[in-house]
Amino acid sequence: MRLFVALQLSNGTIQEIEEWRKPLIRKYSDLRWVRDDQLHVTLRFLGDREPGQVIDQMRDLCLEELLPVEYTLSGIGQFGNPPSVLWLSGKFSSNLFSIVRLLDSIPDEEGKTGGSRRFTPHITLARIRRGASCPNIAFSRQIAGVSNAIHLVSSNLTPGGPIYTTLFSIR
Hints:
alpha+beta, globular
C-alpha cells in the first residue's frame, strides 16, 4: 500500500485557502488543482509499506506529545525545473521539525530511513502539466492556524487523480 504521513490542516485554514484560490482555479484551469479535502503538509513519504507495521512504529514515537503545531502560511512557490508543483508555505513551530526527525526513523519502501533529505514544509496546491507554463501567482496574505493531528494516509493513484484514505491518526 502506498503510504505517507501528513499534518492535517485546520478547517479554517482550508476554507481560507479555498477562498483565495477559487478565482485562480477558474483562471488557470490547465493546472491540476489539489482538491480541498486533500490539502495537507506531507511529513514523510513511505511508499509501498504494510500499514500495520507503520502504525506500530508511529505509536512508539509518542508524536502526540509534540502536538499541536502552529503555522502561518505566507508564501507561494514552485518545485522543479521546469516547475511541476505549485505550493504554499510559511513558518511552522519548531515542534514540526521534531516530528519530522522522529518520522525519519521509520523505514520507507526501500528500507531507508530519512535524515539525508532537506525538509521544506509545504502544501501542494496544484500540479503543472508537462509542457504547460507555471503562472506567476501572488499570495499577499497570511493564514494562521493550528494543527492537532498527524495522519497515516494511503494514496491510490487513479486516472482521475489520487484517492487518499486516512488509516491512522494521532491527536
